[in-house]
Amino acid sequence: MAEENVNKQGILIISLCLIWYITSSCNNVIGKTLLNEFPYPLTVTIAQLLSITLFSGPVLKCMGVKPRRTADISWSYYKKFLIPLSLGKFFAVVLTHVSLWKVPVSYTHTVKATMPLFTVFLARLCLGEKQSMKVYISLLPIMIGVGIATITELSFNVIGLLSALASTCVFSLLHIYSKKVLNDTGIHHLRLIHLLGKLAFVMFLPVWVAFDGLTMFE
């Protein structure tokens, strides 16, 4: 029975990873197509955050995901974790869109393969987590592969590379601290995404108005 449960868990994890990868790939291809015709990564990011704000609540309610009273979370916790996570979410998405705008989708995905490298390094730096030597050695092929892809990329762009690396780094930080917030507050992971999307949208709407908004409606 225990072995059967382990097998089911393994199949579930693999299935979720495949669904995530397919969804992420489709999202990036659509994003690349959009940004080629509409070169406003900040506006695309705000639209994405707006969709999270408007649609996530009703969808989660239909899914039966119970809300957690955000009043139970102290203002000091908001300032220490939730607001920085919202800032990180905004910048990570903007940087991803800039990368998609400047370089091919395939190259952006290749650079994002460095996420395990960032996660291991940042977890060691921020949380003091230590990994085995086997884990560190397993990161070498990733570094070599990204290096080869960078050297041989015909459409190489420095801004695209730096944006992809910065986005991957920020996403790694988000994953590390989101896990801490989930453990501390008991909030459902989908509710956390909804909350961070709302906070990021509200905080950066004035930024969008100052940059893209005024330009687009002149």
Write a structural description.
The chain crosses the membrane at residues 12-30, 42-60, 81-101, 107-127, 134-152, 158-178, 190-211. Residues 14-216 form the Sugar phosphate transporter domain. It holds the Pfam family TPT. The longest helix has 36 residues, at 2-37. With 218 residues, the chain is mainly alpha-helical. The protein has nine helices and no strands. 23% of the residues are buried. It has helices at 2-37, 41-63, 75-102, 105-112, 115-127, 133-138, 140-152, 158-185, 189-216. It has one domain (38-216). It starts with a helix and ends with a helix. Helices cover 84% and strands 0% of the residues. Helix 2 crosses helix 3 and helix 5 (115-127) crosses helix 8 (158-185).
Radius of gyration: 19 Å
Task: Supply the number of helical segments.
Answer: 9
Class inferred from helices and paired strands: mainly alpha
Strand content: under 5%
Unreliable spans: none
Shape: globular
How many individual domains?
1
Domain Sugar phosphate transporter: 14-216
Subcellular location: Membrane
Protein name: Solute carrier family 35 member E1-like protein
Transmembrane segments: 12-30, 42-60, 81-101, 107-127, 134-152, 158-178, 190-211
